[in-house]
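Hi, here's the filled form for the chain we discussed.

Project: internal
Contact: R.S.
Residues: 152
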Amino acid sequence: PTLTGWHNQGIEIAFQPCVRLLIHGNSIEAQATAELAAAAGYDICPFDPCSDDPGSLIDADTAVILLWHDLHRELPVLQAARDSNPFYIGALGSQRTHSQRRQKLIELGWRDDEIARIKAPIGIFPKARDARTLALSVLADVAAARMRQDEC
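And the returned structure, exactly as it came back:
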């Protein structure tokens, strides 16, 4: 990435867009995550699965956060994320749930390296039980992923 400073007899100013969160889910966890993210200054991208094309909402500055308890509802967003290269993809669920997710994605033609991009279970706190703790865990993980991206 270009750094702000003098380059080739001119000044260049680096601009990094705000992190956009695509929070997908209709749950108390999704609501808590959106509220905490808004308070932290993240750009929340509303998503209506009935009318929005998730691929049009995802880019390299997007964190895709899947907070469903239903793999079937995640699949369209996972497919869009696979093609759109967000800096973070995280999904709710246990190791057993992720194993089922993994199997379904393999059936759909996903490669191991593509599946490995999905952080599951989501967040940095193992087994976060309440919605606010999960929200904090998820946002800390998103912030850490963005910092690692900036270092590259």
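Let me know if anything looks off before we file it.
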